[in-house]
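Technical appendix A lists one of the benchmark inputs used to test multi-chain prediction within the project. The record comprises two sequence entries:
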Amino acid sequence: MEVIDIVPPILKNNVIVVKVDQLFKWAHANSIWPLSSGLACCAIEMMSCAAARFDLSRFGYEVFRPCPRQADLLIVAGTLTWKMTPPLVRLYEEMPEPKYVIAMGSCAIGGGPFADSYSVVPGIHEVLPVDVYIPGCPPRPEALIDGMLKLREKIMHPERVEEDRKARLMEA
Amino acid sequence: MDILNMMMGQGVVSTLADQLHNLFMLLFDNAVVAGFLMKCVGIGAILGIISVAAIVFTYGERKVCAFMQVRIGPNRVGGRFGLLQPIADMLKLMSKEDIIPQGCDRVVWALGPMLLFVPTALIYAFFPFDNGVALADVNVGIFLMLAISSQAVLPFLISGYASNSKYAFIGGMRTVAQMLSYEAPMVFSLLGVVMLSGSMRMSDIVNAQSEQLWFILMQPIAFVVFVISATAETNRVPFDLVEGEAEIVAGPFAEYSGMRWALFFLAEYANLLSVSILTTVFFLGGWNGPFLPGVVWFGLKVLAMVFVFMWFRWTFPRTRIDQMLAFSWKILLPLALVNVLFTGVGIYARQWM
């Protein structure tokens, strides 16, 4: 029996019943504070995303924290070189759970134009667990906002993502 | 009409308090118990004000920031105006992982944010919210307020020291330098107010302003000095050197995650509210005003001051640490001293007129 069934019918319209788990999921999904870190030119798009024209703050995601201890989301915006990998992974490890990673731009997804280079990481999934990939070189600010909303959906409904993945596996 | 007269005459809050006191007397029939319960209600009310203010101000700050930068601000979470945004933030901070860094001084580290909240909340006891509405309207109110609020330096230092992090330690030491050097001009600017009103009791200062002019008109220099040093005392931009993110990551807060950091945040907004209340009490005439009940006037003035502080935050760039200290010692302190001198001369001259 669900909790909602216990609520008397007269109160059904006036009482909101949620599970604690769902409440926290809602909170996590609606208050994603990114770490203010940028690696290359995608970071410029990330900044313009928070500025007046695109205004990331509408969704409550504009609180860029300088310190990984208070951040929830690592936006890998730009080319990741092997030289830069240890500091970036350390930043990720310093963040408290639950934490998320967005790979922004071609370089972060698969090395981009530098995919064959000896010094560039061919996709950050080699070193970090990625939640959302945003294609583009660089992606427009709308694309980043869309990526963050996808992440929001993923946090709110993790089962949908799993179904999606299974369906795609079946097709392939 | 009766109710209106009552509200105008005695004030809404004190009438309510009297009713509650009568109720407690009826229930327990003991003046000591009723007095004790009234104090408990007062303390609860003050803690309630602080927590509600922290939630409202986080939302307000984001909206004011958006307004200053021609943006919209939160408008998705919880209806058209994004009213549930601070709730989501708070719930998220509560459910984040609690990281205790290796090598930190565990007990002191955990005590830091809690200790910071004590002086911050304690000074609310002296604030006159309305005529006769103060938890402890002591005759050395300003003196006690300054003494207690200067204790807020220590928690910053110990949390910076106990974090075992270079940035946190530098941040902690900066806090000490900044808050101590801005205490001096703040005290001297208040001296002019005390000289004019002839009392250190906060309600006397407000009453003096209803008899004379508001002190913002009689002490404009003191007002400017006080507002600037209050901005520095609350560690807000342009003086947020304590957590200057371009230089020292997040200062003393660098190692705190989740709810521990939220306590620092709470203390910051409680400080913002308390300096706004102080400005209102000392310079803007406290609860005085026509037509509306006193507590409403008080609230309006306080909110206006909060807006001014937020305005500062989103219009000025951050200063450098040496510029900031030089500004305090070389400009604000002499200015406050000159103000004291001229106030004294003025009072002396008026006696002979």
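The interface with chain B takes residues 23-24, 26-28, 30-31, 36, 51-52, 55, 57-60, 62-63, 65-67, 69-70, 72, 94, 96-98 of chain A (CB under 8 Å). Chain A has a mean pLDDT of 86. Comparable benchmark entries are summarised in Table A2.
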